[in-house]
Amino acid sequence: MSKTLNEMQQEVDAYISQFKSGYFSPLAQMARLTEEMGELAREVNHHYGEKAKKATEPAKTVAEELGDVLFVTMIMANSLDIDLTEVFEQNMQKFNTRDANRFERVDEERKED
To answer: Which of 13, 37, 65, 86 is the most exposed place for a label (fewest CB within 10 A)?
Structure first.
């Protein structure tokens, strides 16, 4: 069964809440998010770019690193009292409005055939 974004944020909060240190400062979280983004970039480069992975490097996947980015994003959102579902809905509204005619649509391509 799939979880909602809100349920995932609650699960992350329950995980973090079990530790005395709790949530780190926003700046420390930003540093961690940046670190995870770097690891994601490295994996994308290994899988889709020209840079081969060294034999001594551990096997990781783009999905694993993207999962780490999502987890850290949820930690940061929780600590700043940000509802990611609400933010997602606002962003989709923005993109659907602002970018409504920005890119050629698949439907337009089919109409020409």
So the answer is: 86
- Across 87-100, b (16+ Cβ under 10 Å) vs e yields eeeeeeeeeeeeee
User: Which pTM was predicted?
Assistant: 0.83
Helix (H, G, I), strand (E, B) or coil at 104: coil
Distance CA 69, CA 30 (A): 11
CATH assignment, 5-83: 1.10.287.1080
Domain ranges of the chain: 5-83
C-alpha distances (whole Å) from 93 to each of 57, 74, 84, 86, 99 are 41, 21, 14, 11, 10
Query: What's the pLDDT tens digit per position in 36-93?
Result: 999 999 999 998 988 788 888 888 889 999 999 999 999 999 999 999 999 999 999 9
